[in-house]
Amino acid sequence: MTSGRRGFTLLEVMFVVVLIGIMATLVVSRIAPREPDGLISLNRYLSDARSEAMDRGPLILTVEDGSPVVLDGSLEPIDLRSELPDGSWRVVPERILFYRDGSCSPGRLTLKGAKGEESFLIAVTGRAYEAPR
């Protein structure tokens, strides 16, 4: 007569879960970008600036010493949660305005960084797009 025990032991299930976790970690680490992508990072940054403008009122995006800075109405810098890739930034025109309704004045941001020169167009929606070369 057979004992009637069927299925997996707890130890076997735990071993499989750990093995899947290790494999998932290896796959994700290979897929994740090593350096932040300029367009993705810029869109996160602009989204944070738009959100702050909707809460606080009009804000100004400008470049000081090669780094983008968001200023409030009294021209005090605002610290945003997101970060941008390292490099030298330029903005044309010299200021992009973010309004309380979530829109902004259009412009162009250019980054000279590790990947060379990247240029982004800023639409009135506050979204960045890669500029044609």
From TrEMBL:
What are the protein's UniProt keywords? Answer: Cell outer membrane, Membrane, Methylation, Periplasm, Transmembrane, Transmembrane helix
In terms of InterPro entries, this protein maps to: N_methyl_site, Pilin-like, T2SS_protein-GspH
Coarse class of the protein's main subcellular location: membrane
Q: Where in the cell is it found?
A: Cell outer membrane; Periplasm
Q: Where are the transmembrane segments?
A: 7-28
Q: How does it sit in the membrane?
A: Single-pass membrane protein
Question: Its domain of life?
Answer: Bacteria
PROSITE patterns listed in its UniProt record:
PROKAR_NTER_METHYL
What are its GO cellular component terms? cell outer membrane; periplasmic space; type II protein secretion system complex
Q: What's the name of the protein?
A: General secretion pathway protein H
Task: State the organism of origin.
Answer: Dethiosulfovibrio peptidovorans DSM 11002
Classification from the root reads:
Bacteria, Thermotogati, Synergistota, Synergistia, Synergistales
